[in-house]
Write a structure and sequence with these properties.
Largest sheet: 6 strands, parallel
Helix content: 25-40%
Strand order of the largest sheet: 1-8-7-2-6-3
Number of helices: 7
CATH topology: Rossmann fold
Length: 218
């Protein structure tokens, strides 16, 4: 299935929110620069509407990026030059948080965020209140066929795969690295040598998605 409009995707999420039962977790996977965060933020913003009280929001966004290992730990493991690869995340910790979020909740759960200027995770950055019925989580490796990432997938009710135009994706990825401090030539080299190796790995997992999303708005 390929949905290409925000309205179609919002309707799908609204249907999940109306179903009886516990919290629904919808994952959004895709290669670096695919527009996953842009997509999820737009959906959550539109679905929660003009309600300012975040404690009553029925839709929440919890990204995978908060589970980046710190630069200090990556240095200890000799992985700093591969930052962003599957093994540079705490996938089991991510799965544990998703399990906690989909269980009955009577209090706020705090999820980690990620500060792109610092390029570091931030503990306790994202509050998820009990009112949240549908939680969208996005990241590169939700469909990866490795033990730790299968744990993540098993916590998701369904997983979408975000697949934009590939040339646009790469261009946007280079621009993002420049925006957050890399020189243009350094950004292009990082995308070529690091991000695109990860992209190929992610693209190989596409067939495991429940929905393929080809966005035309990002």
């Amino acid at each position: 299935m390929a949905d290409t409009t925000l309205t179609e995707l919002a309707d799908r999420l609204s249907a999940w929110a109306e179903r009886p039962g516990g919290t629904v977790i919808v994952g959004v996977a895709g290669a670096p620069g695919a527009g996953k965060t842009t997509l999820v933020e737009a959906l959550v913003r539109d679905l929660n509407g003009a309600v300012d009280d975040v404690e009553t929001h029925r839709f929440a966004h919890v990204p995978m990026d908060g589970f980046h290992l710190s630069d200090r730990e990556l240095t200890r493991q000799g992985l700093l030059t591969r930052k962003g690869a599957p093994e540079t995340f705490d996938a089991y910790g991510y799965a544990a948080l998703l399990e906690r979020l989909r269980s009955p909740r009577s209090a706020v759960v705090y999820a980690p965020g990620f500060e792109r200027t610092l390029e570091q995770p931030l503990a306790g950055d994202i509050p998820v209140f009990p009112a949240a019925k549908v939680i969208l989580t996005e990241g590169n490796y939700l469909l990866l066929d490795r033990p730790e990432w299968r744990h993540v997938r098993s916590r998701c009710t369904e997983v979408w795969y975000c697949e934009p135009d590939d040339e646009l994706r790469v261009q946007r990825l280079v621009e993002r690295h420049v925006r957050f401090g890399k020189a243009p030539e350094q950004a292009a080299a990082w995308v070529r040598d690091v991000d695109e190796a990860n992209s190929r790995l992610v693209q190989e997992s596409r067939h495991r998605a429940d929905v393929v999303v080809r966005p035309v708005w990002v």
